[in-house]
Amino acid sequence: DGAQQAARLLARHLAEGNPLPESVALVLWGADNLKSGGGPIGQALALLGARPRLDSYGRLCGADLIPLAELGRPRIDVLITLSGIFRDLLPLQTRLLAEAAYLAAQADEPLEQNFVRRHALAHQAALGVDLETAALRVFSNGDGAYGANVNQLIDSSAWQKEDELAETYCKRKCFAYGRNGNPVRQEELLKTLLASVQLAYQNLESVELGVTTVDHYFDTLGGIGRAARRASGTELPVYIGDQTQGEGRVRTLSEQVSLESRTRSLNPRWAEEMLKHGAEGVRQIESQVTNTLGWSATTGQVEPWVYRELTQTYVLDPAMRERLARLNPRASLRLCNRLIEATERSYWQPDEEMLRALRQAGEELEDNLEGLGSRAAA
Fold first, then answer.
1. I need a labelling partner for 2 at 20 to 30 A (CA). Which of 41, 47, 177, 323 fits?
2. What does pTM read for this prediction?
C-alpha cells in the first residue's frame, strides 16, 4: 500500500507538469501510522527504494535496499519529520527510516539513479562532515518536546513576517535521529536539506479531522513547507494524501482547503450542527477560520474566495453574526478579527465596501464584548 501511495504522489506531481522530484519532505505522525498499520512509513520507504528487514523470528531489525532494476526509477531523497508522538511510540521504526536513508547514501550506484547519495555527497563536501552525518534524513523535536510552535505563533498573531514561522520550525524540529536512535541537534544540516526540497506531503487518515479542523497540520506540514520555501527561495507544491476512502487520492493543499471549506465551514448544515453546541460550536467555527489563515501564512495556497465566503457567511449576515455573538462573544470577535488579519497580511483583498463593513462588524462585536464585561463587573 505504501508503494502504491508513493506512486500516486509522484504521478500527481508529474501530472502538474513537474519533473520527477529529487527531494521530498514527508511528515509522519504516530497516531496515523498506528491506525493505518504503518502506511505512511511504507510510503517513505518506497520513495527511498527500501523495505523492512526482519529477523528469523519475524521481528523488525533494519532495512534493505530494493535493487534499482526492481525499483524502476531513481531513489528519491526523503526528508522525514516525525511528530513527538511518533518519536516516543515507534523507536524501531525511527531507526528503520534512518538506516534506509544511510544505506541509500552509501550505495555504490550512479548518482543520476540515486538522489539520496548525490545529495549526501554534496552535503558532506559543503558542511565538512562524515557520510553518516550527511545521510541523516529523520528529524523531530528533542527529547520531551512536541510540536513546531508555528501554531502558537499563528494563534497569538505574535509574528510579523512568514520567515519567523520558518525559523521557529527549524529551531524546534532540527534534532536528527540516526541509526542509533539518539537525537543530535543538526540545524545547519536541516536547513541545507530544506533548500533542495521540491514538494511537501502528508497523509490524511481520519474522516473526522481535516487539515483545517486542527492546527497540528499547518504546524507540521505547513511549517516544513514554509521552511523549505525560505531555504530554497522558491514556492513549492504541498500535497495531501487523502486515505479516508477507497484507494486514496492525492490533492494539492489548495484543493484540500477548498474542499473542506465547502463541506465544513461554508456548509449550512455543518454550521447549524456546530451552533447546537453553543459556545463550543462557535469556538470550533472560529478555529476553522484560524487554521485556514495558518495555511495562508505557511504556504500561501488558500484561494481568496474562501475568506470572502467566510466573511459573507459569518460576519456580514446580521442574523448569523448576532447568533455567534450571543453564544460566544469572545470567539465571534476572534473570528472577525482573523478575517481582518487576513486582509492586513494580504491573503485576500475585499473591495472597499466589504472591508468597511467587516471592520464595522468587528467594532460592534468588540463593543458587545466590552459591554458584557462591564455588566458582569457591575
1. 177
2. 0.93
Q: Are strands 175-177 and 183-185 parallel, antiparallel or unpaired?
A: antiparallel
> What are residue 334's phi and psi, to 5 degrees?
-60, -40
Residue 283's contacts (CB-CB under 8 Å, 6 or more residues apart) are 328, 331
Name residues whose C-beta falls within 8 Å of residue 101's C-beta, 6 or more positions apart in sequence.
48, 78, 80, 116, 135, 136, 137, 138
Cite the DSSP H helix spans in 37-181. 39-48, 68-71, 84-89, 91-106, 115-127, 131-134, 150-156, 162-172
Q: Is the dihedral of CA 220, 225, 228, 230 positive or negative?
A: negative
Report how far residue 309's alpha carbon sits from residue 304's, in angstroms, rounded to the nearest whole number. Answer: 9
Which residue is listed with cell 527531494? 23
Q: How many residues does the chain have?
A: 378
Neighbours of 331 (CB within 10 A): 21
**Per-residue pLDDT tens over the stretch 71-119:** 999 999 999 999 999 999 999 999 999 999 999 999 999 999 999 999 9
Q: Which residue has the cell 513549492?
A: 236
